[in-house]
Task: structure prediction
Amino acid sequence: MSVRDVWEATPGDTLVHKLDVRTKVVLLAGFAVAVILIDSPRTLYLLFCLTLALHILARSSVPRWRILIIFVLLGLWGSMVSQALFYSREPRTIVACLIPPSLPVLGTLTGGVFVYREGLEYGAVQALRSASMLSLGLLLSWTSDPRQLLKSFVSWRMPYELAFMLISGLRFLPVIFQETAVVLTAQRLRGFEPLKALVPRRLIQTAFQTLFPILARTLRRAATLAASVESRGFGREARVTEIKQWPASEQRLCLGVFTAIILLLGLKILDVLQFNGLFFIPAWRDLYDVMKVWM
Amino acid sequence: MKKLQTAGFILLFLVTLYLLASHIFDNAASGPALSSRQTGTQTGAFVQVADISLGKVEVHNFQRMGFTKGFIKFSPDSRNLAIGTENGELMLLNLKGQVLWRKNMGLGKLSALEFSPDNRYLYIGETSQQGYLLCINREDGREIWRQSSVGELGVNIQDKTYPGIIAVRSDANGMVYAVGQRYIRYADGRNEYRGRIYKFNAAGVRQAIFPVDHNLDAWVSWVSVDAGGSRAAFGTANWDEGSTNRYTDSMYCLDGALRQILWSTEIPPAPPYQNTTMRSSPEFAPSGRHVAGVASDGRCFLYDGQGHELWFRTISQPQKVGGVYINAVGNYVHLTEEHAAFTTGNTYNRANWQLPTPVEHPGSNSVFVFDLSGKLVSRYKLGGMVEQISGTEQTMAIAIGRNVRSRDVGVHGLYLLSLPDARLLDYAATTGPCVGSAISPDGRYAAGVEAPLQLDDGQVIGAYRLLLLQRN
Result:
């Protein structure tokens, strides 16, 4: 499987592939709101597992799993490590000391560098949010034809220029990755080993040597694309190709998701009002109990 | 090579997911787990049956007055152990340490735990916007009924001064007695106390309430009932007693129907204290013939059931050393038909508990056993704060927590002492402070709860966990 094939949407015969692209966008949007509203690590973890289950359902290939895993791991560990070191809220519990405050120069300068348990937990919760969205976003992009996405946005009365830019960005993401691979291959063929030594100076040098060719090629491609769409009358009133009927069952599903999100939002507002001592409905105590555990 | 890399990434991903899941869903135990770092007890009189994680809790340090709690109680038939955690988890375990059921209390903070005498129900007190007393089916954890205390005690959700059921007792007839309390501290430094004592039958129908038409204007956090349910006693702890207070006596005894005060007594303050406070006493003997109590100033006493004073003893006299008054607070009572055991806690500076003290009070962190004539039978110095005492006629299980003066972490643990000679039967060391203890009515099992503690250098020792011991 080439780099481009890994990144671009491919047709498939799974339930996820068969879903109308508008349904997928609505589900993605609903999911995005849900992971922002929910604070419970349990629920966020289960939601993240749900997105992984959808990847299994969509029969994502091994190279795609590899990409997903790398991104999720980077996000998870990056967030956890950074929060563990820089967590500033109270209470916080020190689980390890990296630089003791008594250490000359560095210790005095920093006041000590510690790993905080609450920071690790907070970082994990934040990372679960982004990991869930990343996982679902990649699923959408791997199982949906960009042309169908464009038609969907236009059918929802999104300005054509905006929709076009959005889809172009999505469409060109695989191309950028492919070009990165080409640049790295070209450099290797010339005997250059970008990750041979992990010293900061060399890493910066590598970044410049890799990013400049990619940027140059991207700009060239953007100019070509601009000339191409201009020559085809981009921006003028044009008839949009008909989009296929949105199945009623999927519309009902989306309506259900929309209703659930509205309900979730309402519950969250209730929970926040209760937590801040502003408003409490005694008769709904059972509901508050559930929210305490799962929201 | 690429396949190897992919396999490595997948493995790392799975490990990360597993670690996350174990951390997130680790709020309650999943079964018995003997820890490798704990080899059991010291003398072998008891053996460790289970060591169960109770989840993650906020870690406190020596600079904090209150500490992490753990509510544990054996069922009257000595077959089960109920645990309520700081995280609001309620669990029922068998004596092998297996979790039979668990439930989350949700919004409420657990503040009391008691079994019904017929072993069928668990009564849970919680502090929340409604301050419920809940009756839970022992078999499956299903809620049978709940009664709120907010109607009497009120609530202010803005200031978060919530009502709560903070003590629950039951008698042999299946009646449940619960103390409802709400404490309000105003911005100008004034304190307001609201208390009520409730009596329910096993079906959750309220039988009585004391006082009938107003709240107790005293800090009441304890109630004791004799086995027959003919008398109920409670103590008060008003720190800023005003002239307008109605309930100014130190101890009250009510009839079983909670209709009238049978007797009450005012215990004059012991200088340099301005008032006499009792937080975890008095305690009735099961027969109702005697009632014993201990005041925070270090005086303990025994009364007969009719309210006649039998004797008073001082187990930790306030002392002026180096210009400051120091005292070891009197805490708990364990009263049997033959003996009375009283406990003292850490040494505090009278001016402010956080200020240092030149020495530790000689009467601090100890258990004193008296016979009913007032003769000191034995004493055992424990080294740390007595966080809870639970006992039978022959054995006491004592949870020893922090010593905020010496900061010696080596004293933490669950101590098992014999009665009346206060001989150390066995001792299960815990790394962190032991904050809860229980002993089964047949004396065959004991349990303790350890909490994590942050030392002054930032290091965290111990964990929130349960130890279950069995007599050999």
Notes: Chain A has a mean pLDDT of 86. The radius of gyration of chain A is 24 Å. Residues 200-231 of chain A form the longest helix (32 residues).
